[in-house]
Structures are given as structure tokens and as C-alpha cells.
Specification:
It contains 2 helices and 15 strands. By secondary structure, the protein is mainly β.
Length: 275
């Protein structure tokens, strides 16, 4: 009996040890691609002259704890009259800043990036955004009417088709909460957007950013938000979502396309303290 118990102990120990073996999954790693975070935001009440663009690269799943930056690029934005705004890098950061940018509603701008002998470009228009007319709090939101909701309201411009993006920053969520919407059924009427959470409490701050965006950026963000929320079906065996490509193209080698987007928006920024 002792021999049998000893043999069982050896087998159990060996099995437990085998469960702790590291499994190396051989993943195909594609060459790094440039990632462009070029969001020109003209905050209402400011001159909008200081703007930044961030360049990074993609990386292997297991190989980097930090996102690699794309240093040494030449970054310029040009308006329709040919005025060039140069974005200079803070060395080694991949963050390129311009301090004399001139934001004009309805103006068209072209982004040009030269990096590692590749030329990237995109063109967009600076879109206006209406003022937030009201912020209201409801204390009976959620599925059971026990959660707090913060709602913003604004009046849509009925003379044109408009597209909007809303960002909420709160301490109860690890990441900003984004939403996009259009005025298809609200032309010239009051519109609203909201955030609710079961962990909201009195005294907490909700940061609100409200953007005017293009229809193309609206479609782009719709896809990203859908993927982030599991809109492609969910489940461990679902087909991985396709790469979401923005409006930046590589004119040197179209197969080496970048990721990210070049966007220009007028922005309303405000804060609300939960009561």
C-alpha cells in the first residue's frame, strides 16, 4: 500500500509540474506599421495654436511592454492656401508639436509625414461643434432604475448634415467612454448623449469632450466602437475583426499602409460633478 501511495504521489506531482510548463505559441509577426494619432482639436475659448501629433508603431504580441515610438519623422500640415505648419518632435518621444497652428472652421488641411523613406498623407476638414446647452443628472437610470446618469444636450444645426463624437472620462472606468452619432432624425432639433454607471457616486467628476467630426470619421469610429464593445459577435472562436484602416495613406508603398486617423474638430470641453 505504501508503494502504491508513493507512486500516486509521484504521478500527481509530475502532473502538477506539467501544468506549469510555459507554452510558447508561435505567432506570425508582421513588420511594424506606422500608427498615426493626428487629432487636431480646437477647444472653444482658446486660440488653438498649440497642437500635437503622436506617431508610434505596431509591435509583436509578446515582444514589447511599451508601445514603440516613431522618432525622426518630418511632420507638416498644410492648409488650402499653402501655409505650412511644421510639427517638431520632442526628441525620442514620437510626439510632434506645432505652436503656430491656425484653425479655421470649414478649412481643408493636408497632413504630410516622411518617416523611414516613406511618405504618408491625408486630407480632412475642420468641423464646427455647437455649444452644450444643458447637463442634467438622473438618479433612476440603468436596468433597475438604481444608477446615476449624466446627460448632455445641444441644438443641432438644421441647415446641414452633422456628425458628432462624445468622450466621457470618469474615475469608475479605466478608459474613456466614446460614442458617435449623427443628426439624420434630429435635423434642427435638440440632441443628447449620456453616460450611466452603477458605481457613480456624489462628488465624482465626469470629464466631457464634445466634437464636431466628418462623416468619414463617424464611420471609422463606429467600426472601432463596435469592435471594442464586441459588436462583431463575441465568443472565443469568432473570426478576428479585420484591420480598421483610417484616412492616412502611404504614397510610397501602398502595401505598407499605416493605421490611425487625421481628424480636425472644434471641441467643447467641460466637467460635471455628480450631485
Amino acid at each position: 500500500m505504501k508503494n502504491i501511495k508513493f507512486l500516486l504521489l509521484i504521478l500527481i506531482t509530475a502532473f502538477a509540474a506539467s501544468c506549469e510548463d510555459v507554452v510558447d505559441v508561435d505567432l506570425n509577426t508582421a513588420p511594424p506599421r506606422l500608427v498615426v494619432d493626428a487629432s487636431i482639436n480646437w477647444v472653444k475659448g482658446t486660440d488653438g495654436t498649440t497642437q500635437s501629433i503622436k506617431l508610434t508603431t505596431t509591435t509583436g504580441y509578446y515582444y514589447e511592454e511599451e508601445i514603440p515610438v516613431a522618432s525622426g519623422a518630418v511632420v507638416q500640415v498644410t492648409n488650402s492656401t499653402g501655409t505650412i505648419f511644421n510639427f517638431a518632435e520632442e526628441p525620442g518621444t514620437g510626439i510632434y508639436t506645432c505652436t503656430n497652428f491656425e484653425p479655421v472652421i470649414g478649412e481643408s488641411y493636408t497632413l504630410n509625414i516622411t518617416w523611414q523613406e516613406q511618405q504618408y498623407t491625408a486630407t480632412e476638414t475642420l468641423y464646427a461643434v455647437p455649444d452644450i446647452t444643458d447637463i442634467v443628472q438622473e438618479n433612476d437610470a440603468g436596468f433597475f432604475g438604481e444608477d446615476i446618469e449624466v446627460r448632455i444636450k445641444w441644438m443641432d444645426n438644421g441647415a446641414e448634415d452633422n456628425f458628432y463624437m462624445v468622450r466621457f472620462d470618469t474615475e469608475v472606468l479605466p478608459f474613456p467612454d466614446y460614442d458617435v452619432l449623427d443628426d439624420e432624425f434630429f435635423q434642427g432639433n435638440e440632441m443628447f448623449n449620456f453616460i450611466w454607471n452603477e458605481d457613480f457616486e456624489a462628488g465624482q467628476n465626469v470629464g466631457i469632450k464634445f466634437y464636431g467630426i466628418s462623416e468619414k470619421h463617424f464611420n471609422y469610429m463606429n467600426i472601432l466602437i463596435s469592435i471594442a464593445e464586441g459588436g462583431s459577435g463575441g465568443g472565443p472562436f469568432q473570426t478576428p475583426p479585420v484591420t480598421v484602416r483610417g484616412n492616412v495613406i502611404n504614397t510610397t508603398n501602398e502595401d505598407n499602409y499605416p493605421l490611425g486617423y487625421f481628424r480636425l474638430s472644434e471641441v467643447v470641453e467641460t466637467n460635471y460633478t455628480i450631485q
